[in-house]
Amino acid sequence: MTACGDWILGRILRGVAATLTGLAILGAGTARAQHDDVVPYSDLTRLLTGGHNDLGDTTSVVQVVFGYDFGEDEFSPWNIGDPGFNNSSAFATNANGFANNGLLPTTGTLTLSVLGGPYGSLHYWDGVGSAAFAPVTDGTEIMLDSGTPFLRIGGATTSGSLSIGSIASGRIHKHISSLIGSGGSGASFATEGAADGLYAFGATLSVPGSGLLASDPLYFVYNVGMSETVHDAGIDYYSAQVVPEPSSLALAGLGVVGLAGAALRRRLRPRLPA
């Protein structure tokens, strides 16, 4: 074969390998979803989302399911510093496959809105048998707190939004708090904590006034007192609701980095909001 032919074949094989790697991670890499930050970015038409794990040093251009654990800090078991939203220029580069160099609009406010339909309200699975989530019925709520604004999400929630933070020069790095409990009003619970099991809800991201379409649905799956095997099963359940299109699979193959080390399932302790 000529040198030119060898070069072309090499490019084809590398492209196939990258795509297969992305498929493998999307299909079997649920551990990557544990504690990943959401990476919001834009293709100049709509918001897109990937994932990034600082400790595991993993990045994915296509990710829509994110897992977090309550109870990791014995001194503050029902308040964690996740989810995070981070499209920092430290890793959002074209070399990693992010469209538009991972940029959001130059200015604006990244906003989270509770997803309408069957996956928008807070859902619960007790971890027994096959994953089967249903709206919570015991009054448990998850409260997202980004400072002064907060949003409570319960079994009857059908709408609501939260300003995550301001965008500067197309970038944002902000962690908000998640709390779980029941009763009370406003920004406090009468009773902190919840029964063991998995709690999940769906949402979308947007930058109001930017002209961009909102993101596809995201799903946040919280673990209370269950094994990571059960947590993975819950993440798989939601992943099955959002099978990516073939074009997204090819994009994922281009955007997978940092695979030399094993992805960490847990953080040693929850991070504080930035």
**Level of helix content?**
10-25%
Count of DSSP-assigned helices: 3
Class from secondary-structure proportions: alpha+beta
How would you spell out the order of helices and strands?
Answer: HEEEEEEEEEEEEEEEEEHH
| Low-pLDDT ranges | 3-32, 245-274
Total number of strands? 17
In short:
With 274 residues, this protein is an alpha+beta fold. The protein has helices spanning 3-28, 228-239, 246-255; strands at 37-42, 47-53, 58-60, 65-69, 79-80, 84-86, 107-114, 123-125, 134-135, 140-145, 150-153, 161-168, 173-175, 177-182, 191-192, 197-206, 218-224.
What does this structure look like?
- The chain has 274 residues and is an alpha+beta fold.
- It has helices at residues 3-28, 228-239, 246-255; strands spanning 37-42, 47-53, 58-60, 65-69, 79-80, 84-86, 107-114, 123-125, 134-135, 140-145, 150-153, 161-168, 173-175, 177-182, 191-192, 197-206, 218-224.
- Strands 4, 7, 8, 9, 12, 16 and 17 form a 7-stranded mixed β-sheet that branches. Strands 5, 10, 11, 14 and 15 form a 5-stranded antiparallel β-sheet that branches.
- Helix 1 packs across helix 3 (246-255).
- The protein is globular and about 45 Å long.
Quick tags:
alpha+beta; 274 residues
Topology (SSEs and partners):
Elements: H1 3-28, E1 37-42, E2 47-53, E3 58-60, E4 65-69, E5 79-80, E6 84-86, E7 107-114, E8 123-125, E9 134-135, E10 140-145, E11 150-153, E12 161-168, E13 173-175, E14 177-182, E15 191-192, E16 197-206, E17 218-224, H2 228-239, H3 246-255
Parallel strand pairs: 4-17
Antiparallel strand pairs: 1-2, 2-3, 5-14, 6-13, 7-12, 7-16, 8-9, 8-16, 10-11, 10-14, 14-15, 16-17
